[in-house]
Amino acid sequence: MALMAGVDEVGRGPLAGPVVAAAVILRGGPIAGLADSKLLSAPRREVLARQIAAQALVGVAAASVAEIERLNILGASLLAMRRAVARLPVAPGLVLVDGNRGPALDCPMRCIVGGDRTVAEISAASIVAKVLRDRLMVLLARRHPGYGWERNAGYGTVEHRHALAALGLTRHHRRAFAPCARLALAV
């Protein structure tokens, strides 16, 4: 039987930080509690991410802010997904992608809208990508204090928008995204 990988990305909407994707092959069977990462608490995601890392084959990748600017967020998301699949330790026979658009791959692929809620492999990929991106944003928050990235993961919260007005843009901000673009034009 061909190995099946689930793929999902996180970080399409934030004003700062990369988009991160994960590809997961559940080789040891299902893992109890898998769900869309957005429906799980941060501590529950951490526990599940450790279980997934121990029991599954995982590939993770990102597309940088520069790549988001060059390709647009959809193109960068597809690039991160393609990289994540390429980083799996074995080639899958089928890739299931959350959403209605998938990356160009060298193996069969099927897109599933809402797959992060209905397909265990995609749920696992969603969790891994979310945990990894959240950890990265905590690290970036230490280097760039004041934006609240350790709490808002780079999303355009009131706190983050106020910090943008007070502190300006960092190299991790997506200048093509409206609030950042307005600020960049004002400089």
- The overall pLDDT average reads 95
- Compute the gyration radius: what is it? 17 Å
How far apart are the termini?
Answer: 57 Å
Percentage of residues in helical conformation: 40-55%
Note the overall shape.
Answer: globular
The largest β sheet comes out as:
5 strands, mixed
State which percent range the strand residues make up. 15-25%
List low-confidence stretches: none
Number of strands: 5
> What topology, given as strand order, has the largest sheet?
3-2-1-4-5
Elements, N to C (H/E): EEHEHHEEHHHHH
Number of helical stretches of at least 4 residues: 8
Question: How does the helix and strand content classify structurally?
Answer: alpha/beta
Structure explained in plain terms:
- The protein has helices at residues 42-55, 65-71, 73-86, 115-118, 120-143, 149-152, 158-167, 178-186; strands spanning 4-10, 19-25, 57-63, 94-98, 109-112.
- The chain has 187 residues and is of the alpha/beta class.
- The chain has a 5-stranded mixed beta sheet, sandwiched between helices.
- The protein is globular.
- 44% of the residues are buried.
- The model has no long low-confidence stretch (mean pLDDT 95).
How are the SSEs placed, and which strands pair?
Blueprint: E1 4-10, E2 19-25, H1 42-55, E3 57-63, H2 65-71, H3 73-86, E4 94-98, E5 109-112, H4 115-118, H5 120-143, H6 149-152, H7 158-167, H8 178-186
Parallel strand pairs: 1-4, 4-5
Antiparallel strand pairs: 1-2, 2-3
